[in-house]
Amino acid sequence: MLKGGNATIYVADMDRAVTFYTETLGLRLLFRAGDHWASIDAGDGLQLGLHPATAHGPTPGTVGAVTVGFTVDEPIEQVIATLEERGVTLEGPVVDDAARLKLAFFADPDGNPLYMTELAGR
Prior knowledge:
InterPro entries: Glyas_Bleomycin-R_OHBP_Dase (IPR029068), Glyas_Fos-R_dOase_dom (IPR004360), VOC_core (IPR037523). By secondary structure, this protein is an alpha/beta fold. It has helices at 14-24, 76-85; strands at residues 7-11, 28-33, 37-41, 47-52, 68-71, 95-97, 101-107, 113-119.
């Protein structure tokens, strides 16, 4: 019945957010309507919608307002090294459950929580 959609992330600065998600994380910009909206292709059918902060929406970076998880397509250590070179700081050590997955947590420039997952056997 329902198909498609996005995870909307409220941001304080659209240019800064688009730069982070495209240049820092290497995702693809699908569409941008000035400072009103940007659609980011995060792969495997996941789209992120970047929306400016409004009086009626959540405050950018409010913990728990949104969490977006990415699946990596190479060893998580390589992805972490690349992102650290681009200025991303991990929030704590990598969670390593070798039998199932590895998780690494970080945030975007507005403080919105993000994480990446390496699934065992992929």
